[in-house]
Design brief:
- The complex is a heterodimer of chains A (105) and B (147).
- Chain A is of the alpha/beta class.
- Chain A contains three helices and five strands; from the N terminus they run βββαβαβα.
- In chain A, strands 3-2-1-4-5 form a five-stranded mixed β-sheet, with helices on both faces.
- In chain A, helix 2 links the parallel strand 4 and strand 5.
- Chain A is globular, with a radius of gyration of 12 Å.
- Chain A starts with a strand and ends with a helix.
- The relative contact order of chain A is 0.25.
- Chain B is an alpha/beta fold and 147 residues long.
- Chain B has two domains: 79 residues, Arc Repressor Mutant, subunit A, CATH 1.10.10; 43 residues.
- Chain B has a three-stranded mixed β-sheet. A three-stranded antiparallel β-sheet of chain B has the order 7-6-8, with no helix packed on it.
- In chain B, helix 2 crosses helix 3 and helix 3 packs across helix 4.
- The longest helix of chain B has 21 residues.
- Chain B is globular, with a radius of gyration of 19 Å.
- Chain B starts with 8 loop residues before the first strand and ends with a helix.
- Classes of the chains: A alpha/beta (105), B alpha/beta (147).
- At the A-B interface, helix 2, strand 5 and helix 3 of A face strand 5 and strand 7 of B.
- Strand 5 of chain A pairs antiparallel with strand 7 of chain B, so a sheet runs across the interface.
Amino acid sequence: MKIAISSTGNLPDSMVDVNFGRCAWFVIYDTDNRSVEYIPNPFRDQLENSGISAVHFLEQKGITKLVSGDFGIKVKPLIDSLRIQLIVIRDMKYNVNQIIELLNH
Amino acid sequence: MSPRLKSPRKVIDPPAIKGFRPVGDPLAGKSAESVVIMLEEYEALRLCDYEGLSQLQASQQMGISRPTATRIYASALRKIARAFVEGRSIAIQGGTVYFDSDWYHCASCCCYFNNPEKDKLLEGCPLCGSSNVERFEAEQVVKMGGH
């Protein structure tokens, strides 16, 4: 199972990004082989619909769960229709490593 | 004057498949233009004929008026009949819809999450695995959605 985390940087101690569509990096964590992949967000500077483009991009990578601080109003129905689970963390106290540790529960 | 906007229809269970293709003449299905059934028409058909609800009950489930539900349902039947008779493929896509999913709150890691697989039961928090989770009230979700 692959899980995408929106991140502010490409390091394990980078904090989770509050924004989903315009986050700096996507961290893709594979729970099967415990691999971590850092991908720069290609839609970061897109003028509009960056969230929608990001969801399609991540869906093609086989993501089933998304961890982020907040999601825009346009992406929510799309994520629901693709049956991707959303995990929203409101207070930004976790970094990428802590999230991965939590996911390994 | 621009036409009045369509009110969005609630779809509780989106289809698992994207459409149907006719059997027999392999070219007929591909070359002929396919009939596009919108998601709200699929939902109306599912509620009325699969779940066996009345059109009034179906309209309440979808958050629309009874005449609108009847119109959507009739349109779904017409499109399916056309696809069957003319041997066209059916694509299920588009429409003025929104999807509904329940929100949950985990008390141990303070995260919020939803459950996209409605038929599956929730096995604790997806993030920390704690079973200390509870349903989130609808009014709070509205506030959450107001970005």
